[in-house]
Amino acid sequence: MDMSSDADHDVCGMSVAIDVVGGKWKLHLMWALSADPIRFGELRRLLTGVSEKVLAENLRQLEASGVVHREVYPEVPPRVEYSLTPLGEELAVALRPLEEWGDKHRGELLGNLLASAS
Question: What are 41-94's pLDDT values in tens digits?
Fold first, then answer.
């Protein structure tokens, strides 16, 4: 995981949080994992556009941060499920207001982006 300088983390908890969920797919993964444990293939189908390699890397990074749990079941073939840890569940709760803000202002924000691209 790419961590900002230690000084940033000493000053602002936001830096630590962004290091955990920063990037294109991690917030989407947090959303997908917030309901129930889910298998890798299901995640891949749910998050259209993510490659298998990128999905695996992001899951490993979230697991290393302690917000995602990877459970391997001793079956043939092995079944692997991903879920949020208690720390991840707390983070998901903290992210909900951000999602609500995005839903509330979706039209305005997308309009602004379209206007600036013209």
Answer: 999 999 999 999 999 999 999 999 999 999 999 999 889 999 999 999 999 999
| 4 φ/ψ sector (left φ>0, alpha ψ -120 to 50, else beta) | beta
DSSP state of 43: H
Q: Which residues pair with 38 in a beta bridge?
A: 82
Q: Is 112 helix (H, G, I), strand (E, B) or coil?
A: helix
Rounded Cα–Cα distance for residues 44 and 15 (Å): 28
Question: What phi and psi, each to the nearest 5 degrees, are found at residue 53?
Answer: -65, -45
Is residue 32 within 8 Å of 38, Cβ to Cβ?
yes
Residues in the chain: 118
